[in-house]
Design goal:
single chain, 187 residues, mainly alpha, 10 helices, 0% strand
């Protein structure tokens, strides 16, 4: 079975085969989207496999990424997270995660949904699937516009590259290579 990435590491293979590039379920889409957005922010400057290996520890540390709970985190929680060796201990990224949960809660109070904002910024599908990884963009004009929109709403660590990666991860764009079994089978 040919994959776009992950071959040789069972965790990475499972992620590629069952999650990456697949749409989020409708319920609870917002909490899952917050998780993906926060984890993509933590990935910035690192390899995704590093975050993937720490994902369960992140889920525990961030209480399942429940937006209201994370939004209520204070300085004691930041200190607790900075001491948690199971996660990536970067204070700027931890504070951004809390800020993002607060921005999401504020968005919900205003009657908005993060999933809807993402959906408004989906790039047009490529006419042909990419043959090689270097044919896949790292950002698009749409991810740049989404970055500006989210920053204006108070989100942090949401640059256009991070947001395009998030769009790939949650199936808003299909960047599986032409040779990838998931593209060939429509899985």
């Amino acid at each position: 079975m040919e994959r776009c990435f992950g071959t040789g590491d069972p965790l990475y293979e499972h992620y590629h085969d069952t999650e990456w590039g697949r749409p989020l379920p409708d319920d609870p889409k917002e909490a899952l989207l917050l998780e993906r957005l926060i984890l993509e922010g933590f990935q910035s400057g690192l390899k995704w496999i590093t975050v993937l290996r720490k994902r369960e520890a992140f889920r525990t540390a961030f209480v399942g990424f429940d937006p209201e709970t994370v939004a209520s985190f204070g300085e004691e929680d930041v200190t607790r997270l900075m001491a948690d060796s199971g996660i990536i201990r970067n204070e700027r990224k931890i504070r951004a995660a809390v800020a993002n949960a607060r921005a999401l809660v504020a968005l919900h109070v205003a009657g908005g949904r993060l999933a809807d904002i993402f959906a408004e910024h989906v790039p047009s599908p490529a006419l042909t699937p990419p043959e090689r990884r270097d044919e896949i963009p790292v950002q698009t004009p749409e991810s740049e516009a989404l970055s500006h929109r989210l920053k204006n709403l108070g989100f942090r660590f949401v640059g256009p590259v991070t947001l395009y990666s998030t769009m790939q991860a949650i199936g808003l764009v299909n960047d599986h290579l032409a040779s990838c079994w998931t593209r060939k089978t429509g899985a």
